[in-house]
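pls ignore typos typing on phone
iron/sulfur cluster + seq
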Amino acid sequence: MGGPEVEGRSILMSPFPGSAGPHLFTGRTYTLTDEGGDPSEYYRLVRKTADACLRLVPGAGRLLRAVREASTWKGRLPWSMGRGRDMKKVLVAVDSALGSYLTGVEEHLRTLSPAHLFDTTLRTTRRQHLLYMMEIELNNRLARAAFLEAPYRMALIAHCLKDFREDCRAVNGDIEMLCSRCDGGCLVRLASELLERFGVEPYISASMDHRGLFQGLMARHPGLGVLGIACIPELVMGLRLCEELGLPAVGVPLDANRCSRWMGQCLETTVSLTELDRLLGGTGDWN
Ligand code: SF4
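k done
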């Protein structure tokens, strides 16, 4: 067992309980792991903060709608939202609990190239990042039971968990890429095996047309449920798309956003298999 020798090379098993993977990797705009590479404190705080926010805006569905609405406003929250006063308290609570997990959003936005100014993912603001963290937690609370009961469940794992590997042997599958389990310590393999243990078909997400993908799958599998593993902004967009299509969907964010889109080159990242296991109905002991 050991850490990585060179960033961007193979992922080895971690000695840390939260994530399988190496020590801390800093993301472009957020990093959920502590200095030991463990994201469990983030998950403890996001749950605690969601509970606190629910005391301000009772009802997970109502709070989720308010959080989404607030995340679309880049300036001051309009009082016409009706919940303006409570949402300001929500924002303060979320910022004070989770703000330290943001890593250079302002610097990233300041240095965004003109070619990316219209990219809504890359333009995600500090407030949006924080509200998206809350949105994922609330969404999972609301959609988890329906997802677990869905007759056919599939997962899309972000391609950036694997595509820095020159020797990755993933192959084209019926709808998306399939991991061929060539590397015992690869996070895509570990996540895929965990997902299969809970009856969820794992795919590596490569296509950009998720709407077309889901619509095709819905025609083949009327009881479709979706699980996503992606960076925070991409995961939120995927969860919103699933809700629009009437699909129960849950997700686990990558521990840090380090794909080529954010970093200019694809660098290694991790995901919490403990959280994935819990979301799937396990105890969090994914080994
Ligand atoms: S085939 Fe699977 S286990 Fe092998 S490197 Fe690619 S994603 Fe990892």
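Residues 1-23 have pLDDT under 50 and may be disordered. Residues 162, 165, 168-170, 179-183, 186, 188-189 surround iron/sulfur cluster (CB under 6 Å). more later
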